[in-house]
Design goal:
Layout (H helix, E strand, L loop, with lengths): L4 H37 L3 E9 L12 E9 L34 H4 L3 H17 L1 H8 L3 E6 L2 E6 L4
Antiparallel strand pairs: 1-2, 1-3, 3-4
C-alpha cells in the first residue's frame, strides 16, 4: 500500500520531533558532565557564563544562532589584589551567578598565577565546544538568553541584544 504524501510528512515530523527531544535530553546530560569535569579540574572556578542568540541583523548576511562571550568567574568578581579578570563595573551582569551571595575568598596573585593559564585555557576550550555544537546549546537552553553554569547547575535568563 502506497503512503500518502501527508503520511510521509507526518512521519518525517515525528522523526524530527524525536531527534529534537533526544538532542535536548542527551545534551543536558552531556553538558552537565562536561561542566562537572571543568569545575572538578579547577576548584578556583566559581562559574562560567555566556550569551547565545540569533542576531536580528547581520549586515546583509544570514542571521545564524551563535554562542557569544564565554566568560569565567574565579572565586569572586575581584580575584586578587592587583588582578581583575572582569571589570568591576560589570558586577550586575554576573548576578545570575549569584556572586554577591558567595562567601568571598581572597587570594593573593602569586597563589593563583600558576593556575590561571590552565583555567583560562579550559574556559576557552569549553567556549570552543559550545560554539562548535551551537545547535546543542540552542536545543538545551534556547535562543536569546544568557546561560550561567555553576556547580549547582545551569540558570538561563532571557536577554535583549542588538
Amino acid at each position: 500500500m502506497k503512503k500518502s504524501k501527508n503520511s510521509a510528512f507526518s512521519e518525517l515530523k515525528k522523526m524530527k520531533d524525536e531527534y529534537e527531544r533526544k538532542l535536548k535530553t542527551d545534551g543536558q546530560r552531556v553538558l552537565k558532565e562536561r561542566f562537572k569535569e571543568l569545575f572538578g579540574a579547577h576548584p578556583e572556578l566559581l562559574g562560567v557564563k555566556w550569551q547565545q542568540y540569533t542576531p536580528y541583523f547581520n549586515d546583509g548576511e544570514a542571521c545564524v544562532f551563535t554562542v557569544h562571550s564565554v566568560e569565567g568567574v574565579l572565586l569572586d568578581v575581584r580575584v586578587a589584589e592587583g588582578l581583575s579578570l572582569v571589570d568591576s563595573t560589570k558586577t550586575d551582569s554576573y548576578d545570575t551567578l549569584r556572586v554577591e551571595e558567595q562567601q568571598c575568598v581572597w587570594v593573593d596573585v602569586y597563589t593563583l598565577r600558576d593556575k590561571l593559564p590552565a583555567i583560562l585555557l579550559s574556559i576557552n576550550e569549553v567556549g570552543d565546544e559550545l560554539r562548535q555544537f551551537s545547535d546543542l546549546a540552542q536545543a538545551v537552553f534556547g535562543d536569546h538568553c544568557e546561560v550561567s553554569a555553576t556547580r549547582d547547575g545551569f540558570k538561563v535568563i532571557d536577554i535583549e541584544h542588538d
